[in-house]
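Support case: user asked for a sample of complex input and structure output to validate their parser. Sending the pair below.
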Amino acid sequence: MSDAPKPPPKAPAPVAYKAPELRPETLPERAFVPELLRGLAVSTSHFLRNLLFSRDPSPDVLHRRGPNLVSTVQYPEEVAPYPPGYRGMHRLVPRPDGNPRCVACYMCATICPAQCIYIEAGEYPQDPIEKFPRRFEIDELRCIVCGLCVEACPKDAIRMDTGTHCKPTYDRPTIVYGIDRLLKGPAVSHRTDVWFKREGSDPPADGHGHPIPPLPGEGKS
Amino acid sequence: MPDQPAPPKPPPPQAPAPQPGAAPALVNLVIDGRPVQAKPGTNLIEAANLVGIDIPFYCYHRRLSIAANCRMCLVEVSNAPKLVPACQTPVSEGLKVTTNSPKVMDSHRSVEELLLYNHPVDCAICDQAGECKLQDYYMQYDHRPYRPAQAKLLRHKRKEIGPLVVLDQERCILCTRCVRFMREVAQAPQLGVFGRGNREYIDIFPGQPLDNKYAGNTIDICPVGALLSRDNRFKARAFFLSETPSICAGCARGCNTFLDHYDGVAYRYRPRENDAVNQAWMCDDGRLTYHRLVDDRQTRALAGRVGSGQPRPVDEVVAAAAEKLRPLAGQTGLAVLVSPQLSVEDLLAVALLAREGLSATTIYEGGFADGDQDDLLLRADKNPNRLGLRWVAAAFGLELRPFDAFLEAVDEGQVKALFAAGTEVPKEPSFVAGVLGTLELIVTQAQSFGPLVGVSDFCLPAAPHSECDGSFVNFQGRVQRFQRAYPPREEAQPHWRLAEGFLKSLGFAHRWPTARDLFRELSPRVPDLASFDWDELGPGGRPAPGLAARPAAADARPPGYRERVVTPPWQVKAARTDRPAAQDGGDGAPRAAEPPRDPPPGVGR
Amino acid sequence: MARLFRMLLLGVLIVLGLCAWAWLGYLAVNWLGGVTLGWGWGATLGQAVAAIVFIQLLFVMIVATLLTLAERKWSAAMQDRIGPNRARLPGLGRFSLGGIPHVLADALKMISKEDFLPSQSNRVLYHLAPVLNFAPIFCLFAIVPMGPPVPIRHGFAVLVATLQIANPDVGLLYVFAIASLAVYGVSLAGWASGNKLALLGGVRASSQMIAYEVALGLGLVGMMMTAGTLRLDQMVQTQSQGLFGLSWLPAWGIFVQPLGFLLFFAAAFAETKRTPFDLPEGESEIIGYFVEYSGMKFGMFMIAEFVEIVTLAAIVTAVFLGGWHLSPAIDGGLASFAAVLVRWRFGFAEPTGVLLTLAVMQTAIFAVKVLVLCWLQLAIRWTFPRFRYDQIQYLGWRILLPLGLANVFATGVCLLLDPSLSLLGAVGLAEIGVGIAALLWSGAKSTQPAPAPAHVGSH
């Protein structure tokens, strides 16, 4: 392999950043003490400004004003505003009658990488949507807020648009959110929803003697 | 189909020379360039299956008459100008079949689109989702958006047509498998096709619900979600369920089943094909016996009588009960009651305990009382292992006496104490419990709660057959293995493990790490079991059987994993047993010329 | 602005509290001295006991305890943080009291933690080491005079009440003697833990402390020569005069011996084993000698460190910062103010009362100086990065030691030429001027803009 022709010399690759050259130390710098005192002056100025002046309590740290330099956000008394792209915690979307749009199809539970969704399905006796979640629980401690459940949902029943986050708690069971805490926000309905396609919610007792419901587009004679 | 294993390496694409002297004349044909030899009369779907080629279909079923009305299986053949339905076309000499030409694929796509024309794509609430052929074939052959602008036809969405079956006419694709099943197999034509053309639909006849004993099979054979079970409706999504080969314990037939379970809970039985036992069917009663594996389970060891039993560790209770039993060993006052619900392995251990540990010479037969019987599958004996109990009792020198004799003995005051392996009794349990209340000592091994548990001094939690490996002997004398689906619930243990604990406490040195070891040690005593090879009938025919030759569901398999059983080896090897009743329909015909014994999952439904 | 006023009010309250403490201290010293005198045991015993209570327990320990919190709060302020403010006292609602409940919480934590004993340790020495570390440091404060002596009549006798526990002739030699004992506690703690990393920490500690003992002594020798005494109260007295006869410029040690101050302060700082000299401890990275200690035993190491801070501040105050004196002019003004106060209270300038009032004010001045020095040490600890170990030894042996020798020599020459402190003061002020010039130069140099980073515009 030593006979392999050497690659031609390359031009130095352009670099985006070049480290500044260090200038040689001056005598006072080598004497150390003046530099120590200058450092002390910096500490002292910060100390005095933060000790003597009030802190601007604005939660937006970058826009705090005044001589006080403290940038702490005193959570939970102060809450920093979320960036505009933040989606927040999920919610169960209600349908116009207040029940969840969810039909307990388990798609979210299937795709959830954290396996934090627990669903128990129930059956509506008289509703065109036969299936509903009797229990729909999300373990917010496990949830990684990845949003895959929103992508997987075929019914637009779970969304991440609340802009809030899960509140901390001292009690582990209370952080498993059920339908009562997840179901919130404005109701949503689509043209493809079943209750637009099918008028009555109760089917005939048997198929004989009853006319089959006409097509919505068909003329009713 | 994704479940199909990789096809074997194709031999060179030329028809092999017909072998002179081969007894049945085989037909040579070429499917997709692969040479195939098949018996005359085999249809193209089965012939293609021999070389691992899948032809999609809905209405075809091996055990039903051929309707050829779904048009999904249309293929191109060399002797016809148009596409022909593969299910209805028998093989012929020199035929060239093409199943993947653009013309055929376009046909598949068109048929799929037609079937989806009025199908409400409500997979979100459909229990069939995950095992639905409409879904599978859509993803495989169509995969296009819905074109019609017109609204879909509305029909009855939820009609409970029988005690077990609910019908959704919108989802139906009118393959008429259910109609043909009820007419041909169940011999009870309770379903029919009504209407014409676009408005055609499946329904029951007025005032005549779908209440046949075998109506549940229509749920299995329905390729879409039109016929669904009311029993486990909305209980579990199909794609979460894992299946384990099992045996129905509902009657002495011992139908071969798949037990579908998830996270340690059984959700349903599905029939598994076995020509010698149950073909591809099972009865509704047996279908519902999975509830015994789940409901009212007794999973803690209890000590103390009449409802006052307090949960204690199993070892402690076994030791305490053994101390109470030790002075009674060999006395006539100690009765041993054994249920034929126990597996062969359980019976071997319990018989050893009765014979050696308790020095008994007589045991009494428990088990459920007799019930209905019919010509198809149902047996009057509602216990899966009565023949096994008789074999084992005879081999261990134990006189087997019926349950009535036991009650008489109790009445006459001859029985002072009872050891019961399995609390199933043929009489009303509360009546039996009242009779037994006078006994001094009752030790039971129970899998469910019941009156007998309430009167027990010591009650031990027993695991049913879904939670351990073992075998049953059906009424034909056919030994059939079942496999553990999931680990025992809470503190439950198999009967044989509990019996081992009793033997240990009584000073015997029997140790069986697994049911296999137990069977290896004790089955030589039973001549009827001599020809039965536990391993070869066991875990998938692996060459080196071991502790966990086949991973159980609890062993890190993902939920919804399905065993890919193409040719269940235990059915093939069953022919090796010399018992005439255990003949597996084996007639010595060359296997290659026959359809495989068991189609891949999904085909038989 | 509200916070500014609050802080000023807090400062005034602290000064008033210190005055009250000093007043009670003088009264207690005087009273207990009289009591023991009456018992025939001599006045010194009672005075010392009262001084121990008021100085060691009420001043040193409380200040050291509050310094544990102050270190956290002040470092937070220097780093633009808030610091601990979440511990609350029951019944006070949302008021955090500046984080003072955290001191209580820390104490509770220390006491209730497991008292861990390593299996390979030397049991006796392991238990003894924290005490050996704490006791010498605690004893150091005994010779520090916190206030001027006040003669008070007791019947036929006149007792001199002073806030000083002991006033031996050896004075500063006591400091050297006792301070060097602390190294035993440290090295024994490292050795008795049965942990090789702790042992290494102990070895580092002893080597560092020995290296800086020399500079510690040499830094003070110059001031001893200047004052001509070893006793601290006399050193304070020496610093009460004006330099060059000016009434506004006091002859403080820091002005006549700036180099000595620097040497002593640096060496003493190294003795406290705090950043930048924290190689023996290095809590977070290089494991220190007390790695195996937990609970209150660790607490003794920690509190010893803060007691050492207070002691160092007090000794520096007494030796280099004029003790309770400010300048002759201000001292005179304070005396007049004291006379006015006494006259306003009693109607005439009762001499003992005037002296006592002045002493109380001067004691408060001393205490304030101590507090400021404590703050300075904390500021240094939170400003400077840690030295490398070779740098520490280099600094101790090859910089501080020659500088100390040179300082002793120069001081001797100056005193020989001019027994009054004028020449010494001139030299000292010249040194300070050179230092300030260097500081300004260095500031001018390094505030010039750094060369702009060269960007190669490839994209």
